[in-house]
User: Fold these one by one.
Assistant:
Number 1:
Amino acid sequence: MRLSGKVAVVTGAASGMGKSIAELFAAEGAKVVISDLNVEHANAVAQGIAEKGGSALAVQGNVAVEADVQRLFDAAVETFGTVDILVNNAGIMDNFVPAGDLTDELWDRVFAVNTTGPMRTTRKALSIFVPKQAGVIVNIASAGGLFGSRAGAAYTASKHAVVGLTKSVGYQYAKLGIRCNAIAPGGVKTNIGASMKAPNAFGAERAMAGMGINPRVGEPEEIAKVALFLASDESSFVNGTTVTADAGWTAY
């Protein structure tokens, strides 16, 4: 029970990696707040955790909306008393659109969810972590946040920004008992592709060029195990860094 007595907020937790993270954290003793736009699926995840003897709360929310972020943390504190762990998992893709075809609307939408959302949840979590000088943040970045053309220009830039935010928070708050790390998954079986409509042919062709050297696609549960390590005291000396989990894809 590596997270016994802890309260964890996980965004985008109704499916995919977020769901696996929430379920594993609950199995390890954490009380989990499951945040997602799809409240029906979030409730199903919470019910599944409860049926296995865990504690979970589903909260509908959009990390791109400040009021929803406030409501999410208010609900967590009201129900469980505090927050100890934040996992910024919510994210969307960008239709593989290259820079030459980008619109302001697409750029703003991708950044609102992938970058501004984690900034807002981090800001709110820090308001809880700093007074008690304890807390852990785990950001879900991407191999696209370390290298180029795993997706379109907006997604790639947004995930690079998440890596930078991770480094900044990790270093600046290190002496206050707060750690912040990120995970850079490679290809993982999730439904994030559902956020893509009519992929850009040129951008998709360029992005897919490297898939031939990808050893394999991962399972959400494999990313959850990395998140558990980073959220637990087992990683007490790991801070401000990004852990790549991609079966060796980016090692080539």
Number 2:
Amino acid sequence: MILVKNIVKRYQTRNGYHTVLDGISFSLKKGEKIGILGRNGAGKSTLIRLLGGIEDPDSGTIRRDMKVSWPLASKGGFQGSLTGADNLRFICRIYGVGFEDKMRFVEEFSELGKYMHEPLKSYSSGMRSRLAFAMSMVIEFDCYLIDEAMSAGDARFRDRCRYELLEKRSDRSIVMVSHDHRQMRQFCNVCYVLQNGALYRFDNPDAAFSYYKNAQ
């Protein structure tokens, strides 16, 4: 289970502190899949980063009793001067898993060809996204954090991402940030709307989208 209790997160601006998350609480059980809706700037990506341990809350607690992924397809942790293969070696070393079989999977899934052995700083944004998602799949987690990860690439690549994560790993927990109504309806048990720092729960994705649309 993941238990989020009274989380507050603020950022300093030129006009003082801006509160993005204002005392939100929720829980995520094993195998549960939740969707998060909210306008741009509402704090969805901030919440994903907090759940992944990339940032710390200003107050409140997050208890993780399961192995939680980094935000899928996140490119922030890559070293641009290293090749794609070297970045993969680094990730495998951190998590204590073998490299060779993971390399074959990442090469096939990302379809980067010779660019796997070129520095990341030579990659396009789309190439980085394909590599990042493929690398996210080589480490097995109990809970996957998805911040619009499956919006990158062409339709065929997005279909492969959905199969790899949402069908092949259907027994895992998921926290998904997306504006894709069909995707949330298909894969999420519960939806939340993040608005003005507060989190509103809906057991029906259609009800969540209706509230979200009317609140904009």
